[in-house]
Write a structure and sequence with these properties.
The protein has one domain. The chain starts with a strand and ends in a 5-residue tail after the last helix. It is an alpha+beta fold. It has helices at about 55-60, 65-75, 80-90, and strands at about 5-10, 15-25, 30-35, 50-55.
Length: about 100
Amino acid sequence: MSAPITIQIVWNGIAVQITHHKGRWHKDFDHIEILSEDRRALPVTETGYLSHHVAAASVEEYGGAESYVRAFLDHEAAKPGWKEREAASRQMSLF
């Protein structure tokens, strides 16, 4: 197991910290932690934090944790539930 790698990205205007633990508990699986600034909701987590275990081969297939997480967020953001949430957050409410 190697030391975790922490990456800062901005996804759709939201600052996101990605911590990648290669082979954390098993050589074939990686652990990725996703944490948004101010714990803002993301398409993969309403709390702004996600602990995600994934096959190491999947992470490598995307070229690393940053590309994997960006693809994961983009994929989940394309779903109707996230699109509705985003539209509602842009709507002004009088009540």
